[in-house]
Amino acid sequence: MMFNPQSSESSMLTSRETLLSTLETLPDALFVVDDATTIVYANARAQTMLGTTQEALVGNSFWCLAPHLVSTTLYQAVLKARQTRKLTDVEYRSPVTQTWFHAQISPTGVGLAVVFQENTEPTQCQDALRHSEQRYLGLLEHSAERVAMLTPEGLILEISQRPLTDAQVQLEEVIGKPLTAVSWWSSVPHAQRQLCAAIEQARQGVTVHFEARIYPHPGRYLDLAVTLTPQCAANQQVEYLICTGFDITQYKRVEEELRTVLDTVPQFVWIRRPDGSVAYCNQRSHDYAHMMSEQCTEDELLQQLPPAGRQCIQGMWHTAPRTDITHDEAVSLQFVHPEDRERILALQRQALETGKPYEFEYRLRERQPDTYRWYLARGVPLRNEERQIVQWFGTCTDIHRQKQTENALRQSQERVNHLMSSSVIGIFFAEGDVVVEGNNTFLRMTGYNRDELCRRCINWGNFTLPTSKPSLFQQVHQELVVQQDTTPFEAELVCKDGSRLDVLMGGVAFHGEVLQGIGFVLDNSARKELEQRKDHFLGMVSHELKTPLTSLKLQTQLLRKQLGKQGIYNADTVLSRMEAQLNMVTRLVGELLDLSKIQAGTLEYAQETVNLDDVLQEVVDIVQQMQTTHTIVVHRAACPPLLVGDKDRLEQMLLNLISNAIKYSPGANMIEVDIKASEEAVTLSVHDQGIGIPQEQREKIFERFYRAVAPHQRAFPGLGMGLYIVAEIVKYHGGSITMESEMGKGSTFQVTLPLKRT
Q: Is 710 inside any structural domain?
């Protein structure tokens, strides 16, 4: 029989029509898809199930056009049938219609044939699977988070109810659609690009984390922490993706509020990612970086960085967009002091490797070249519940003034240490009456050791003489309380072995719960010994000179009388001058003798009732006869003042004051003396119109051997003992002496003496 092509073709067409007619009458829905899951054929039951026509289905993706049938279970079964090329059965519930389906997937020449049967009667094993599937879908539906199951291309296979509620859309509107195309992602281009990039990375087998702000519907936004996790088959091929989104809106709001606050603080504040790259810098950091970046280009910036820092910054620039933060970090490194760069980079790398907090100081340049300020940098890791580092939080605080203070304190401490190590000055610290610290010189002076000092066994009372008058130390204590320092004073300390040490002391006090003070002690024994020897010498010389002077004075007086008897009167003038000079020398010798007695504490005073007015008149008469160049004017009190004292010493006091007034008033011709009395005291004032006393010398004029004259005024005679003796006589009588002076207009000395001695 010969072959008839036309007959064969007609037979094939008839057979195909018969097959299609058979498929159209099947009670189950049938889809034929190619290897790309594109629909090639859908029978009448399938068209009815999806509510569309053959023409609308053919040529389109099964996953996009069959939302009522799509599920992750079905997707996995299709992948399995495609890979094994074997018949695969699966039973699942539709997420959209909640209808149970039994799907049978068979390989064909063009791809796969998928047959769906509804409401199948389950076997016992299938019933268990249905319950498991139902629990899984219920968990997905009621999940508080936003979860979606995606194909590697990003098509939605299943999705939890939460994002649908957020966007106010139905499940069937999104199943089978690209996640990037749903409204809450497509309405935010930046977030959509983030998601596209993340899906592309996830389909390569990489788990991706990122944060994004989406808008489920106008007027409401959500900040999500999104994770895309790939799920792989046994052959390591990615089968599907799990996309989870955690709502961090409240956290981001708090973070934004925190950043608003951080932008107002004067410190540099930054947040780093776990890899060390900077995620956030506050406004202070940006302002500094932008201000300093104006001074150099990026190439100049990189050239000035150390190799490790240069590689770090270049790596960030090559792997991330050129953000202001990256540039700020490079600028900050570039303007770190060259000596500090390698150190801080090493410390930061060490912290990232160990996960331990760090703290270091470094110098950062200011706008002026070669001018740096000190900063304190701190960094602490922030960890999640699994103790993984999610961020690094750091601050940089300006500590330049603190460093200057520390430097000043260090220099001060060095000076104190040098002072404390002095072998000349003894230094001690006291709290109340207890000596708590002292240098070696102080311990050597007093005979105590450091162990006794540490045990606080040294008390100020140990140094005080039992018979000493307490007035001196009471006065010193009062000065410390009121003035917080005291003028240097001489004292005698009792050492540990009972010996006595003459010292010159001074100190300062600090007020607190307990009066604290620093004392300075200078060994004054050599000076005191020298003064004693000098005073002894002066006393001895005074005694030795007094006898021949007295004899010479008597001989001069006798000679005058004898010459007068012989009628030789022209020698009287010469002898009177000789006698005046002898009186002056006798007076000087007497003052030297008194001075030595005062120093030795042996100057004697008589106790008698004295009419001070009569004493004053006698002194004025004597001086007036000797000094004819000045007139002494006396202003007396109404009632003659009487006091108990030594008449000769009071006469000596007045004679010295009036003689001094005449001596230092060479250009004047009058001295005024006032005497006034009250019920308690008598006041004597001696006023001259002389040269005056400079301000800086007024506190010293009552010291022995001190003369308040300038070098060009050395013509004034005297040894500087008169006012010292006057002050001692006044002191003995319980009185006080003061002085007022004006340069070129004269001085006034005022003595106040009590009428009744206590």
A: yes
User: pLDDT at position 686, please?
Assistant: 92
Query: What strands lie across the sheet with 736-742, from one edge to the other?
Result: 631-635, 670-677, 681-687, 746-754, 736-742
**Contact in structure between 661 and 671 (CB atoms under 8 Å):** yes
Rounded Cα–Cα distance for residues 116 and 103 (Å): 5
175: amino acid identity, one letter: I
> How do residues 70-81 score in pLDDT, each as one tens digit?
888 888 888 888
What's the number of domains the chain is made of?
Answer: 6
| The total number of residues written for the chain in this structure | 758
In angstroms, the CA 749 to CA 741 distance is: 9
Region of 398 (left: φ > 0; alpha: ψ -120 to 50; beta: rest) is: beta
Whether residue 484 contacts residue 510, with contact meaning beta carbons closer than 8 Å, is answered with: yes
* Residue showing tokens 């409204």: 183
- What is the number of other CB atoms lying within 10 angstroms of the CB of residue 150? 25
Cα(108)–Cα(37) distance, rounded to whole angstroms? 13
Is the pLDDT score of 55 beyond 70? Answer: yes
Check residues 215 and 325 and name the one with the higher pLDDT.
215
**Cα angle value 732/467/448 (rounded, 5°):** 130
Read off the pLDDT of residues 271-324 as tens digits, 9 standing for 90 and up.
Answer: 887 877 787 888 887 777 777 666 555 454 444 444 544 444 444 333 333 344
Highest-confidence range of 15-24, 470-479, 729-738, by mean pLDDT?
Answer: 729-738
Q: Please, are residues 158 and 140 in contact by the beta-carbon 8 Å criterion?
A: yes
Query: Domain for residue 371, yes or no?
Result: yes
Whether 8 has a pLDDT exceeding 50, the answer reads no
DSSP sequence for 310-353: HHHHHHHHHHS---HHHHHHHHHHHTB-HHHHHHHHHHHHHHHH
Q: Among the three residues 374, 404, 434, which one is the final residue of a domain in this structure?
A: 404
Average pLDDT over residues 489-494: 84
Report which residue type is found at 281. Answer: C
Element (H, E) at 267: none
3-class DSSP state of 364: strand
609 and 750 share a domain?
Answer: yes
* pLDDT tens digits, one per residue of 665-721: 887 888 999 998 888 889 999 998 888 887 777 777 777 665 665 544 545 555 567
How far is the C-alpha of 29 from the C-alpha of 165, rounded, in Å?
31
| Residue 16 included in any domain | no
Structural element, H or E, at residue 431 = strand 425-431
Look up residue 651 and give its two tokens. Answer: 């006469």
Q: Which of 8, 120, 31 is nearest to 78 (CA)?
A: 31
CB 458 within 8 A of CB 434: yes
Provide the domain limits for residue 201: 144-247
Measured CA to CA, the distance from residue 515 to residue 496 in angstroms comes to: 24
Q: Which residue has the tokens 């004025």?
A: 620
Residues 6+ apart with CB under 8 A from 689: 665, 667, 668, 670, 745, 746
- Pairing relationship of beta strands 434-438 and 681-687 according to DSSP bridges: unpaired
* CATH number of the domain within which 82 lies: 3.30.450.20
pTM of the model: 0.43
pLDDT reading at 215 higher than 70 = yes
Are residue 181 and residue 219 in the same domain, yes or no?
yes
> Which pLDDT band, with edges at 50, 70 and 90, does 4 fall under?
very low
What integer pLDDT is reported at residue 306 of this predicted model?
47
Residues 6+ apart with CB under 8 A from 621: none
Q: How far apart are CA 70 and CA 65, in angstroms?
A: 9
Residue 106's DSSP bridge partners are 113
Dihedral angle sign, alpha carbons of residues 567, 569, 574, 576: positive
Cα–chain center distance at 467? 52
- pLDDT averaged over the chain? 77
For range 376-382, the mean pLDDT: 89
**Average pLDDT, stretch 315-338?**
52
